[in-house]
Design brief:
mainly alpha, two-stranded antiparallel ribbon, globular, glycosyltransferase, LipidA_mod_glycosyltrf_83, pentosyltransferase activity, RgtA/B/C-like, Phospholipid carrier-dependent glycosyltransferase
């Protein structure tokens, strides 16, 4: 397991991929509607940006808890790194310079984060499996329609996938440089400041760091002793925190007595100082062992510090407000979800849900190499366990194991029957980046095998003569599918599902998040009477406002909350909300829609108009 530096050519290629992805997202985002979550984040970002205005004009007032709560209390169930970037981008590019429309200015940081994924996939994939694998991993990620759709949004799911990938890349590069170990801690702090699922990362990476330290300390007793002391320090601090919980009378009392001047804080400071002292001492004995352990110390110390610093809402009450945030996600509510003809309202959820959903939404030409790459890695690992079969295969390296474990971590977390299942596939995007790298490895092996056969017959044949057609065969169907469904990404289904009609027949969720209403807004703008009352089912008030702000919906029409109060109803087809269509029939006295959004003849949004 060695982290090799990228070559100059690879760095330039990664930069070009970032620019290409950023430009593609920016040039197409205007057609994408506003999801319910996104409009909430727009509103939160707008409020946060006002705090920065206050900070410039009245710093003393800005740092008071009352001013912070007034600005930052809204949507405090999520960290604020991305929302802060959304707000500052809007403040600069829309409010100050007037260069962009309202929504584009908010979304710009999301494009920058999402564009990191192809660049990092190329760097890591090329280093582990060669340039062909890196190129395929980079090009294929945004060709998955649902991944491209989410990349267009000012939300957190693609940014946290990018940050997860960045943390792993820094962790891998830390094996060659202590500075990369520090960067791993910084990246981890930014990751948990992006979304809560990054909190699982230390549990994924720690075994690799400890195994690496154990390996490279073999034959160096002094280094191994110091490495054991390092681990012992963390174990001791964990035990001390556990004893505090017990002796203080439980988690609630532990939380209440977690103050600036308390044993709780002292233990953390001791951990930080002790880590630095032990690593400095270890550096003089064994640099490889030090490099293996630095990322763990950096994540443990820098992660919490950066998380606290990035979120003003925590500054005056860090323990209580962080505890509320963690409890919110630990007890997250369940949303109804239609899956294979069953309306799932609560746990236990099907164990195979994530696998099935991935197979039915990722273009089959991309899903097949993902499965091939992952199965090949697992197969090699299993065959290498036996002395009889070990000589048949090349044992996976620790770096490959790192990719393989991260390829399944998010999937395994969401697959737990008690974890809420909603949101399509976005909650396991961190796994999809690594599955893309394994897909690239499978494609690269296949291309090389074909080239070897052709070269035996025609020695002058170039590897590109194989790679280009294979890439076209696998990537073009995904590209065409993405173009066909754009901008309605949450309705995308693969060839295995039979496309959108097949998915509807299977009883799958046809679409969600309300953004497909853009398909009927032009009709509403043309046919609604002046001042018409509009009920846009599943579209919240913020989104209604954003459609008007961005010129996608006439400013004179008014939102209402019931079909009975409406002149026009746009019903978004959801199995769990069928009664809203029935209520519309009752209110309007008709069951005949006037228009709708139909993708491959599959109803997505159905519009009814009250008869005069």
């Amino acid at each position: 397991m060695t982290g090799r530096p990228a070559t100059r050519e690879e760095k330039l290629t990664a930069l070009a991929l970032w620019v290409l992805a950023f430009a593609a997202l920016w040039s197409t985002e205007a057609a994408v509607g506003f999801t319910r979550d996104e409009s909430v984040y727009f509103a939160a970002a707008e409020g946060y940006s006002q705090w920065f205005r206050l900070l410039l004009h009245s710093p003393a007032q800005a740092f008071t808890d009352s001013a912070i709560v007034r600005a930052w209390d809204y949507n405090h169930e999520h960290p604020v790194l991305m929302k802060t970037l959304f707000g500052l981008s809007h403040l600069l590019f829309h409010d100050t310079l007037g260069l962009m429309r309202d929504a584009t200015a908010y979304r710009l940081p999301a494009f920058a984060m999402a564009a990191l994924v192809p660049a990092l996939c190329f760097l890591l994939g090329s280093a582990l499996y060669g340039r062909t694998a890196g190129w395929f991993a980079a090009l294929s990620f945004l060709l998955v329609p649902r991944q491209y759709f989410n990349a267009e949004l000012a939300c957190f799911d693609l940014p946290v996938a990018a940050m997860w990938l960045l943390v792993v890349y820094c962790f891998w590069r830390a094996l060659e440089s202590t500075r990369w170990g520090i960067a791993c801690g910084v990246a981890f702090g930014l990751a948990i400041a992006t979304k809560h699922n990054a909190l699982f990362m230390p549990f994924v990476l720690s075994p690799f760091a400890l195994w690496r330290a154990w390996q490279v300390s073999e034959g160096v007793p002094e280094a191994r002793v110091r490495a054991v002391r390092f681990v012992g320090l963390y174990a001791a601090v964990a035990v001390l925190y556990g004893l505090l919980v017990v002796f203080l009378g439980g988690p609630a009392a532990f939380q209440k007595k977690f103050l600036l001047l308390s044993p709780h804080t002292l233990f953390f400071v001791g951990l930080a100082v002790g880590s630095g002292v032990l690593l400095r001492d270890l550096k003089h004995v064994s640099l490889p062992v030090t490099r293996a352990l630095v990322p763990l110390a950096a994540m443990a110390v820098l992660g919490p510090v950066l998380f606290y610093l990035h979120w003003p809402y925590l500054w005056h009450a860090p323990v209580d407000r962080t505890a509320w945030y963690l409890a919110f996600h630990a007890t997250h509510n369940h949303y109804a979800w239609f899956y294979l003809g069953t309306l799932m309202r609560g746990p236990p959820f099907p164990l195979t849900y994530v696998l099935v959903k991935t197979a039915l939404t990722v273009p089959t030409s991309l899903f097949a190499p993902m499965v091939t790459g992952f199965v090949a890695l697992v197969g090699r690992a299993l065959l290498s366990l036996s002395a009889r079969t070990r000589e048949w295969v090349r044992m996976p390296t620790a770096s490959e194991a790192l990719v393989g474990v991260n390829a399944v971590t998010s999937i395994l977390i969401i697959s737990h029957p008690q974890v809420p299942h909603f949101g399509g596939v976005k909650h396991w995007f961190p796994s999809m980046t690594f599955l893309g790298i394994l897909a690239g490895a499978a494609v690269a092996r296949g291309c090389f095998a074909v080239w070897e056969v052709l070269k035996a017959r025609r020695p002058s044949v170039s590897p590109l003569a194989v790679t280009v057609p294979v890439f076209a065969l696998l990537l073009v169907p995904a590209l065409l599918g993405s173009v066909r469904v754009f901008p309605y990404g949450t309705a995308a289904y693969s060839e295995l599902a039979g496309g959108l009609p097949g998915a509807a027949t299977l009883g799958m969720q046809r679409q969600f998040w309300s953004s497909h209403v853009t398909g009927v807004l032009p009709w509403i703008n043309e046919h609604a009477k002046p001042g018409a009352r509009i009920y846009l089912h599943e579209v919240n008030g913020f989104s209604f406002r954003d459609y008007q702000r961005n010129g996608m919906l006439r400013p004179d029409v008014r939102p209402v909350n019931s079909p009975f109060d409406a002149d026009i109803v746009a019903y978004q087809y959801h199995q769990e909300f069928r009664e809203h269509e029935f209520l519309t029939w009752q209110a309007f006295g008709t069951r005949t829609p006037v228009t709708g959004l139909y993708l491959d003849e599959t109803p997505q949004v159905i519009v009814y108009q009250r008869p005069e």
